[in-house]
């Protein structure tokens, strides 16, 4: 039964990864890459009796925006590997929960992290801690990629690798 749950979680993670890739490609296609073409303000505006003749002509917002390069207005696109890495990290956290509780219930193992030892016996607290850790890592990476996109990808790769090593070790405990 436990092996079936593990394979179900792995297949769900792969499904999330496969579903995230086309979405990233589609959103990248919507970002304009060409030059911004200024749009002129309309030459004749409706006249109003209350507007004095020396009032400045209103300028269309699009002509104001065309003064600035689009790179200053739009955020750079999120690196494509990040969303699948977020999904795999969340899956690895779920597998860590499963493998830890399995090893502890069999009596063959003990929690190696001294900060988590008091929490692993309470399943709700353990799940909440795993969810909080996942959220914190994703939040930190989301802040990081806006200024350091390569570092954010490396950070998530290291986090995923570390969790994969922990999960593999936990499942090796019989």
Give a written overview of the molecule.
With 174 residues, the chain is mostly helical. The protein has a domain at 2-20 and 77-172. Helices cover 63% and strands 0% of the residues. It is built from 6 helices and no strands. It has helices at residues 2-29, 61-65, 70-73, 82-106, 123-145, 149-172. Helix 1 (2-29) runs antiparallel to helix 4 (82-106), helix 4 runs antiparallel to helix 5 (123-145) and helix 4 packs parallel to helix 6. The radius of gyration is 26 Å and the shape is elongated.
Number of helices: 6
Count all strands and give the number: 0
**Would you identify the regions where 5 or more consecutive residues have pLDDT less than 50?**
11-27
- Residue fraction in strands: under 5%
Shape: elongated
Helix coverage percent of residues? Answer: 55-70%
Radius of gyration: 26 Å
Q: Pairing-aware structural class of the strands and helices? A: mainly alpha
- Rounded to the nearest angstrom, the distance between the terminal CA atoms is 15 Å
- What is the H-and-E element order? HHHHHH
Major pleated sheet: none
**Mean pLDDT across all residues, rounded?**
76
Which descriptors apply to this entry?
single chain, 174 residues, mainly alpha, 6 helices, 63% helix
């Amino acid at each position: 039964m436990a092996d079936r749950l593990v394979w179900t979680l792995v297949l769900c993670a792969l499904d999330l990864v496969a579903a995230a890739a086309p979405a990233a490609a589609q959103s990248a296609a919507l970002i304009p890459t060409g030059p911004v073409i200024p749009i002129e303000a309309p030459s004749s505006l409706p006249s109003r009796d209350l507007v004095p003749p020396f009032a400045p002509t209103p300028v269309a917002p699009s002509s104001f925006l065309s003064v600035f390069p689009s790179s200053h207005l739009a955020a750079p696109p999120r690196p494509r590997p990040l969303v699948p890495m977020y999904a795999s990290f969340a899956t690895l956290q779920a597998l860590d929960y499963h493998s830890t509780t399995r090893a502890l219930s069999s009596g063959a193992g003990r929690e190696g992290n001294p900060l988590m030892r008091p929490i692993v016996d309470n399943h709700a607290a353990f799940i909440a801690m795993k969810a909080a850790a996942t959220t914190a890592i994703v939040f930190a990476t989301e802040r990081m990629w806006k200024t350091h996109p390569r570092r954010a990808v490396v950070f998530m790769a290291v986090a995923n690798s570390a969790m994969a090593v922990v999960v593999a070790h936990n499942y090796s405990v019989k």
